[in-house]
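Researcher: Quick test of sequence recovery. Tokens follow.
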């Protein structure tokens, strides 16, 4: 029996550690040839000298298990290096089928203390990094489709957002903004590429990684101490969803946002209108708005605006 991703090729960014590593291993297990991208900086804030070590280690791990992988040490937030990453995949494997965007850094600070550099750095790596790889992968799929007479081709994008964007994250305005932007980028991309046969979806994973070490420092490290169960925050809980979204079976899943962690997947709907008020004249007056909106918000239970976060079991604290 053939594997779901046999004959497919994939890029996974930020794949040297944590979520990216688990996802690269899962795609390889499902049969994909994988380009393991990681800039290899030791600091989660993007500091330190870049190293090929993390990408090379995951490449070796995939090969040792009988899979196919190559390593790429490059900064996806650099437009030309992102181009080179996509070109590497197409040159090595003949085409690109799957793009999983993970690369990111943290520069946490309250909004009243955040520097311009801290804002720009996080937006650059998360949001621009997602755009850069998406831009060149999308161009590749469009060109392939046109070369085949306009027929749909195989293309899958899985982007990485965060629950910080859903619930707000007081100490991470840059990170929350970047992750919200990634959702907008994904839904726009999904609409633009659907006619070429390409899907784009976005996940909000909750996992214990280098970036979330302090957030989950007090959380249980395993599901059941008696049987040595898998840590409920292990990245391995997230990887199967990425493998599914990258597969032919998910051809009908497009432009979707899913939260995933610890054996749970939640489908998040786009915002819906909760209430509507119409002016009795051409336009609202101040007094009319106060008479309508004042009681509406005063009568809502405290914290109701965070209802989605509560359903997903989130806490109003730093993002994941």
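Model:
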């Amino acid at each position: 029996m053939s594997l779901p991703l046999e004959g497919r090729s994939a890029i996974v960014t930020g794949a040297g550690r944590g979520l990216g590593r688990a996802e690269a291993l899962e795609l390889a297990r499902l049969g994909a040839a994988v380009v393991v991208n990681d800039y290899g900086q030791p600091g989660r804030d993007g500091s330190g000298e870049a190293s090929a070590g993390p990408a090379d280690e995951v490449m070796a791990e995939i090969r040792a298990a009988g899979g196919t992988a190559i390593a790429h040490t490059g900064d996806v937030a650099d437009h030309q290096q992102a181009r080179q990453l996509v070109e590497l995949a197409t040159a090595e494997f003949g085409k690109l089928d799957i793009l999983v965007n993970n690369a990111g850094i943290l520069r946490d600070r309250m909004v009243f203390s955040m520097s311009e550099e801290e804002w720009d750095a996080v937006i650059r790596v998360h949001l621009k990094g997602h755009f850069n790889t998406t831009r060149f992968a999308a161009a590749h799929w469009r060109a392939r489709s046109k070369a085949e007479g306009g027929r749909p081709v195989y293309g899958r994008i899985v982007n990485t957002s965060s629950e910080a964007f859903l619930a707000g994250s007081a100490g991470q305005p840059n990170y929350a903004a970047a992750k919200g932007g990634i959702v907008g980028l994904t839904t726009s991309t999904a609409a633009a590429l659907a006619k070429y046969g390409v899907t784009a979806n976005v996940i909000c994973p909750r996992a214990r990684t280098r970036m979330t070490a302090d957030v989950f420092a007090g959380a249980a490290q395993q599901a059941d101490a008696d049987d040595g169960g898998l840590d409920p925050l292990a990245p391995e809980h997230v990887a199967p969803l990425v493998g599914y979204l990258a597969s032919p079976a998910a051809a009908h899943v497009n432009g979707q946002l899913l939260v995933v962690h610890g054996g749970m997947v939640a489908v998040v709907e786009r915002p819906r209108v909760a209430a509507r008020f119409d002016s009795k004249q051409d336009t609202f007056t101040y007094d009319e708005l106060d008479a309508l909106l004042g009681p509406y918000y005063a009568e809502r239970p405290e914290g109701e605006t965070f209802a989605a976060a509560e359903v997903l079991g989130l806490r109003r604290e730093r993002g994941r």
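The first helix runs from residue 18 to 29.
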